[in-house]
Amino acid sequence: xKGIVTGAAPSTLDALTLTDLPDAPEPGPGEIxxxxxxxxxxxxxxxxxxxMIPAPQGRVPMSDGAxxxxxVGGDDTGFAVGDIALSLFFPGWQDGRDVPYAAQRMVPGxxxxxxxxxxxxxxxxxxxxxxxxxxxxxxxxxTCAGLTAWRAxxxxxxxxxxxxxxVQGSGGVSVFALQLAxxxxxxxxxxxxxxxxxxRLRDLGADxxxxxxxxxxxxxxxxxxxGGRGVDTVVEVGGPGTLDQSMLAARVGGHIALLxxxxxxxxxxxxxxxxxxxxxxxxxxxxxxxxxxxLIAALEANxxxxxxxxxxxxxxxxxxxxxxxxxxxxxxxxxxx
Length: 337
Fold this sequence. Notes:
Layout: E1 2-5, E2 17-20, E3 31-40, H1 43-49, E4 66-72, E5 84-87, E6 119-123, E7 127-129, H2 136-139, H3 142-154, E8 164-168, H4 172-183, E9 187-192, H5 195-203, E10 208-211, H6 218-225, E11 231-236, H7 243-249, E12 250-258, H8 271-276, E13 280-283, H9 289-302, E14 308-313, H10 317-325, E15 332-336
Parallel strand pairs: 8-9, 8-11, 9-10, 11-12, 12-13, 14-15
Antiparallel strand pairs: 1-2, 3-4, 3-6, 3-15, 4-5, 5-7
């Protein structure tokens, strides 16, 4: 069985190695064996393989994985041979509002081996079904990016018709958030530094576009685009470099879903603005198994398919990450296994 492993800590892209792994064991009671067919890239995966998140030498990376079930251990797994199974980011978080502490220490591709491999045997509870009609590659985009966007809009707050949602950039989470918000009847303001990507965001349904390279102080402009009311929900992927603008854009009592650190991990916060506008800033990391099933139901009901701009072979995983670093993608980058 082939798979990718990390090099000696701190890991680097150049140290990623395609190698032979031990064969996956036969599934025991409550387990399934999955022939993985696809994964997809997230910032979290990049942090692991580039050494930002420490991982031991020989770790199999990638939190996202999807493929067909080739064996089941017993009759109570909820899966049948041939089903497309989709991995969970937090297999220890089955339900409930908050991620259990123990679940944070068993993330595939990070604290446990992930899905950059051909076959895996694991508890059936570590997976959900894939949406009907989805390919494995399409399904593999949901584990992290799709579920994070779903939680930002429909778990920690309740986006409804007539709301205004602001999305930042054109990465996987932001594109999913745009698609989900439009399906819910919301108005969407999208930001990007690329005119070409802004037009693609318009094609997906974005109602208003802001080029933040041309307008670095885009918060007041977003406020203006809402007639002075402000944005109901901001899907905040930038972190400290964009949070002030998000707070300026938000309405009084607005919701900021803080889920990214693309501009850094620390910085000053305008606390006076935060409390004077009675804002809710909700940090979030992906979601539970029950929330993933809710996302899947919504995607099926609305006929939403993910946007995959690029696909790489497993052996070329390092090149896929280099493509991600260059910010050449729109939506998701998939990996064929």
